[in-house]
Design a protein that fits this description.
The protein is mostly beta strands and 177 residues long. Helix content is 13%, strand content 38%. The protein has 3 helices and 9 strands, in the order H-E-E-E-E-E-E-H-H-E-E-E. A 7-stranded antiparallel sheet has the order 2-1-7-8-9-6-3, with helices on one face. Strands 4-5 form a two-stranded antiparallel ribbon. Strand 8 and strand 9 form a beta hairpin. The longest helix is centred in the middle third of the chain and has 13 residues. The N terminus is likely disordered.
Length: 177
């Protein structure tokens, strides 16, 4: 019998989020050269989307009624903590073979390559389409969040005897593009 807690940690409320790396913002665009879709577990309690508007108030001397005026829409931000853990198997086949297709270190290297490193043609980080399955993150046709990585902090939780990460949390802030 397989212990279900080994397959998925019940205490951490993991969900998955997909980040597609694209060369341009067309909904039907192909992924950027050499990029793949990453499906990552994240802590839903850390996922926050921030929307802002810039409002200017007319505080001129002699104005009887002070009015507020819309100036512009600020860029939305998405903050999320991804949870990477080599000790949790997402399916029984990986558990039976004691093999994982991607280790924490490989996933972090892939995140850096796809999200942080500048594209050789545009000289900018790739645009990302982040989707939390059916949860709408933005008001658009895809329901996903189009943006670029603003910052990423890797926090090591457990490191094995070979110096490889076994568990890590990756805090990311994406800004709408």
């Amino acid at each position: 019998m397989i212990d279900a807690s080994v397959l998925k940690d019940r205490d951490l409320h993991y969900m998955e989020i997909k980040a597609h790396s694209y060369a341009d913002k067309n909904a039907d665009a192909k992924p950027a050269s050499g990029m793949k879709t990453l499906t990552l577990a994240y802590d839903p309690l850390t996922m926050q989307t921030t929307f802002s508007n810039s409002i200017k108030q007319n505080n001129s001397v002699g104005v009887k009624r002070r009015k507020s005026y819309f100036r512009n829409k600020g860029a939305a931000e998405l903050r999320v903590s991804f949870v990477l853990d080599d000790t949790i198997y997402m399916n029984p086949i990986e558990l039976a073979l004691k093999m994982r297709s991607d280790t924490t270190d490989k996933i972090i290297k892939s995140m850096i390559k796809q999200w942080y490193t500048n594209d050789s043609k545009t000289l900018q980080p790739n645009l990302l389409l982040i989707k939390a399955f059916d949860m709408p993150l933005m008001d658009g046709t895809t329901g996903g969040f189009w943006g670029q990585l603003l910052n990423m902090q890797v926090i090591n939780k457990t490191i094995n005897e070979q110096g490889e990460r076994v568990k890590a949390r990756v805090d990311c802030l994406f800004i709408e593009s």
